[in-house]
Amino acid sequence: MSRPLTDIPAGATVMLDANVLVYAFTPQSQFHASCVALLERGARGTLSLFTSVSVTADVLHRAMVLELLAQGQAQRSAEAVALLKQRPDLVQQLNRYRSILRDLRQARVDILPLTYRDLHASRTYREQHGLMVNDSLIVAVMRRETIPFLATNDLDFERVPGLAIRIPHP
Fold first, then answer.
1. Is the entire prediction scored with pTM above 0.70?
2. Sign of the four-CA dihedral 167, 19, 77, 28
3. What CATH number has the domain bearing residue 15?
4. Is residue 85 situated within a structural domain?
């Protein structure tokens, strides 16, 4: 059973899933406060925080979509994506996603690369534990970097033995 983010001990090394970062950057999320507190622990240096380049790209993409939805220019995510593809001028007008990389740097989040070996190793987690591609890549990077803790709100990761899953709380 997963435990809350607050149960991550000082000095721990933690991988951040996209949902935790999206909650941290979305003040209206019920999980915002607990995810911001996690990033603040990283900024103070009491935790070593990591994510991957693919997770970061996903967070930036979601931030663009959420900003367009918040502006009322679309009602659903798929509609927002279609509109952004049709209207590059709207992409150029978006602002929130632009500060995310700076925010991650301020929280001392290290963005790890993906390698061919990670792509190959991730196959095991899809075939043996039924994870989707992006989730399997997170596990592959965690194993490569020997990162024990995963901050996520995706309980699919519980199917992988040996991961210390910590979830956000309201």
1. yes
2. positive
3. 3.40.50.1010
4. no
